[in-house]
Amino acid sequence: MGLLVSVDTTGVEPEEGTPAADRVISGDPRFRTWNVEEAEGRVYAGIWEASPGKWRIEYDEWEFCHILSGRSVIAGDDGETRTVSAGDAFVIRPGFKGTWEVLETTRKEYVIRL
């Protein structure tokens, strides 16, 4: 692998998961994550996908997100609510607390820095 890495999931087996049971508010959300890059255990990049449902989120990390498909609502405990869909890009900063609700299966590109 060279120094220029494509965010390409071809041949990458996705990790499957769910939110912790005590965080689920509604539905039966399921995750698939294709992590294509890990740098020094502190930076990760790849593709994440979630099926419909709503759960609590708490961020200790910094994350850049670019929505590829689907529709979700991210609501902060501070009252700010944002509906995101294909083409939207945003950053979630450490300390963000709230909910993530997937209305239509959502797929995003991400870069996470711990």
Structure description:
- There is one protein chain.
- The chain has a single domain, classed as Jelly Rolls (Sandwich).
- It has no helices and nine strands.
- Strand 6 (62-76) and strand 7 (81-85) form a beta hairpin.
- Strands 1, 2, 3, 4, 5, 6, 7, 8 and 9 form a nine-stranded antiparallel beta sheet that branches.
- With 114 residues, it is mostly beta strands.
- Residues 1-24 are annotated as: Disordered.
- This is Cupin domain-containing protein.
- Residues 38-110 form the (S)-ureidoglycine aminohydrolase cupin domain.
In short:
The chain has 114 residues and is mainly beta. 0% of the residues lie in helices and 62% in strands.
Beta-strand percent range: over 45%
Q: Which segments are poorly predicted (pLDDT under 50) over 5 or more consecutive residues?
A: none
Please give the share of residues in helix. Answer: under 10%
Number of individual domains: 1
CATH class reads Mainly Beta
CATH architecture: Sandwich
Q: What global shape is seen?
A: globular
What's the order of the H and E elements? EEEEEEEEE
Number of strands: 9
Number of helices: 0
Mean pLDDT: 96
Q: Which class of secondary structure composition applies to the elements?
A: mainly beta
- CATH homologous superfamily (4th level) name: Jelly Rolls
Q: Report how far apart the termini are.
A: 23 Å
Radius of gyration: 14 Å
Oligomeric status of the shown chains?
single chain
Protein name: Cupin domain-containing protein
Region (Disordered): 1-24
Domain (S)-ureidoglycine aminohydrolase cupin: 38-110
Organism: Aquibium pacificus
